[in-house]
Amino acid sequence: MNFPIARELQRLFDTKRDVIKAELRDALTTIHLSFDLWTSPNRFAVMAVFAHFIDRGARQQSRLLALRRQFGTHSGQNLAASLVGIAQDWEIRGRVGCVVSDNLAANDHCPQYMYKHLDSSMRPADIKARRMRCYGHILNLVARAFLFGKDAESFELESEINCMRGLAEQDLSHWRAKGPIGKLHNIVKFIRSSPQRSEHFKRIAQEEEYEAYRLCEESTAELEVILNNDTRWNSTYMMIERALRKRTDIRAFIFALEGEQDEAKRIPADDMLSNEDWRVLGEVNAILKPIYLQTMRTQGWVKLTATGACGRCW
């Protein structure tokens, strides 16, 4: 690193690293770790590791310790080796408390290897007690199982394959089999599949809102419908919630297309939502809403609200 900017960046990094090391060294508590893995757009596996502790001023703190590529298989042993190396780099080998991660089998095995490296005298019962499951991920699993059954990944994969192969009709049938949620997905996808349809829907929505004297309350984005993102349940909840609010607009849009001679320009009859379908969507929305709100409460820093403290609840 011979360039002035590169040298300055390295100097700043080293300085900040020393500050964080001092914070970790002076912490009043053990250092609890949370980690997760993602796949980057260029298909690299990336591990993020956070440290959580109480500082000398009795304040809760979180620090990003690592954001690095994860090589090899995502086995518990490989993940543990990465975490042990990170603990070594930050000089906290003897001070690691609990570990928080998603509810995957590899994450169950990871602490067993990690704690044995950090403290060979630790008993299996103590290791098990220090493995904490991510609360947000538990909520995610509950909602996905409710919406898509136990094998949500297979459902999502089949939909992705249909889209990649251009099998539009097969994908419509695939989603339609999920009942009212699948039919709503197909309707929204139809609306959003072209700029012209989206604009047509927004014009209808504006007319409906004008008649109700509420146009000024909604932005252009609020006039649109939301398409869910495969089996990511929170986007499905938002799709349903918006559709229930825009139910009149959706019906008006469908009615406006009934005169089209070209069948491809009309929503398929099999995707029409009956009154019973709308009732089911309302019930699904009522079930998902508290899960969604609870998920939102777990995000961010701890703060007091009218219903108690929330945030950073893993």
TrEMBL record:
Tell me the InterPro entries matching this sequence. Answer: RNaseH-like_sf, ZnF_BED_domain_contain
Per UniProt, subcellular location reads as: Nucleus
Q: Sorted alphabetically, which keywords does the UniProt record give?
A: Metal-binding, Nucleus, Zinc, Zinc-finger
Q: Which GO terms describe its molecular function?
A: zinc ion binding
User: Which terms in the GO cellular component ontology are assigned?
Assistant: nucleus
Q: What is this protein called?
A: Transcription factor Zn, C2H2 / Cys6
